[in-house]
Design goal:
The protein is mostly helical. Among the domains are: about 75-205, Tetracycline Repressor, domain 2 (Orthogonal Bundle); about 275-405, Tetracycline Repressor, domain 2, CATH 1.10.357.10. It has helices at about 25-40, 50-55, 60-65, 70-90, 100-115, 120-125, 135-155, 165-180, 190-205, 230-245, 250-255, 270-290, 290-295, 300-320, 320-330, 335-360, 365-385, 395-405; strands at about 10, 15. A two-stranded antiparallel ribbon has the order 1-2. Helix 1 (about 25-40) crosses helix 2 (about 50-55), helix 5 (about 100-115) runs parallel beside helix 8 and helix 12 (about 270-290) packs parallel to helix 16. The longest helix is centred in the middle third of the chain and has 25 residues, at about 135-155. It is globular, with a radius of gyration of 24 Å. The N and C termini lie far apart (about 60 Å). It comes from Nocardia lasii.
Amino acid sequence: MNVGESRGARGSGGVTGEVVRRRPKNRRAQIAASSAVAFGAAGYHGVSMEDIASGLGISSAALYRHYPSKYALFRDELLRVGQAFTASIAASAQGHLPASERLRHMLTGLIGATVENRATVRLVRWEGRYLEPTDRVVLDEQQGAVLVALDEQLAVLRPELTSAELRMVSTAMLGVITSIADHHAALPIRTMNALLGSACAALTSSELPPAATVSELGARAEIPDSFKHELLLRKAVDLFHKRGYPNVSVEDIASAAGLSAASAVYRFYRGKSDILAAAFRRAADRVSAAIGPAVASTPDSGAALGMLVDQFVADTFDERALAVVYYAEFGHVPAEERAVLRNIQRLSVQEWARLVREVRPELSVAEARFLVHAAFAMVIDLGQRFGDDPIAGRERVGFLMRRVLFG
């Protein structure tokens, strides 16, 4: 028996007494890892300290000895990953390598940091807005440092690009890499490095189309006040995008739609989550419904894929808020509806991947799916970052999406 395994007296019958469980030396790291998985699965607002403690097999009191609140856990985890990203960039900047090699090392480091922290990267992407303002500034500075470092290497390789164009390409590359946090597909790390690295290289190696001369923000169709079903849907999505789903009440939605009382909402929807599910079903059906006509009306898979790219970019630009809310708030949809939405999304990605493989037969099914997810995420990230700025207009974003998919 090792010293410290148990306490009690030795007697003629052996050892008596209760077993002493030593606290693991890495308990804080275990807590951080467990919280990242929990937050990644259910979102910041969907997890309690009791949930995290239960997952670790410890009491809530033991958890509070390490972290004073759920927010402290959330903040520390997001900023830790932000620091991991900046550290991977800093490590890649060492030595006297050509810009192309240094950029490749940076991208490999970012892919490694994303894989290692996949659950928390999803939080950084979609729930960073729930950080308090001073903490949000720190996270933004960390992300900004990564983009600046990428900009600097790109500027050496593509000196003809303006600073805004450099930032657009850097944002696109980071979106491609961090897209792996938006899905659960798996690839061997070496294959993933090669695949995503190649996609990023494709983004940097071709001349961009001319920037749009005016804003390409589509005019949203007006919804008559009498058409409350549609009006509620749009106003709710706008509020979810602006404040986050947990911070919007049925009363807020009713007021935005010009209804006199929250009770009036229930004539059209069963509740807030029902509105969210209806919006998501519409978004998923739109992507799915575009596939058949594209394949039927084009001569080959490459043309069909090109048509789908244009449609996806147009839909994302026309419904920017819905595109972001779909990824950020998916965990708040009722479980049964989530299963339906996931199936629609899986089948859509599968069909896109099939077209990609017909254009690029050297890719495996899993690799093609990774590229489809990467292309989707990149478009949404560019929409978030640049809004209606003509520097990242529809033609350019569609061009970059094609580069990811076609290579």
